[in-house]
């Protein structure tokens, strides 16, 4: 069985080291546990079905291409049960329960992938659905025993990693929001630009120099990640940063 100190070290790294890089987390998990592959997916329910927002795995490009090209994601019972569920989903149980999904497991066996594994549903306050799937190259009996011994470790590591991913996404969103927030003067300058005023006219209206107007417009283009004033106006209108005339 896995050394318990190694497990504790892993959990410390994920919890306190802010391990929000999927491949780094996967490498730590594979080094700590006797597991073959990992997959992390976060999806958002839509009227058309699930929209995948984040997908990271260790299966390789060929396995991903095979999975998608054969439409196996449409019949995958593990995704169906784990995304939005609360209990761990054992792959073998899903295989027995949904015999119509046998092509998925046969495809995995074709390319030498393990078919023993577990999918762990992960809570998300954003309304999205997420899971971490873990597989092992073991016999069914060996995997059953290994899973029994380490399921709690898997769940804790998965939840800590998922929390890091959510925190990282929230920080990025906050940075984006802060960076795109226009000052009152930038808003004034851009509003007059949207009205078709030239730099000279805006400078006259606001009682500032034309050079200062150019400075504010340059800042605005940078914040909105555009290259022209026309694009800046369009972005600002789209995000309700300036009043529409």
Automatic annotation (TrEMBL):
Gene3D superfamilies: Transcription factor LuxR-like, autoinducer-binding domain, Winged helix-like DNA-binding domain superfamily/Winged helix DNA-binding domain. GO terms for molecular function: DNA binding. GO terms for biological process: regulation of DNA-templated transcription. It holds the Pfam family Autoind_bind. The keyword Transcription applies. PROSITE patterns: HTH_LUXR_1, HTH_LUXR_2. InterPro entries: Sig_transdc_resp-reg_C-effctor, TF_LuxR_autoind-bd_dom, TF_LuxR_autoind-bd_dom_sf, Tscrpt_reg_LuxR_C, WH-like_DNA-bd_sf. Keywords: DNA-binding, Transcription, Transcription regulation. Residues 175-240 form the HTH luxR-type domain. SUPFAM superfamilies: C-terminal effector domain of the bipartite response regulators, Pheromone-binding domain of LuxR-like quorum-sensing transcription factors. PANTHER family: DNA-BINDING TRANSCRIPTIONAL ACTIVATOR DEVR_DOSR. This is Transcriptional regulator NgrR, LuxR family. It comes from Sinorhizobium fredii (strain USDA 257).
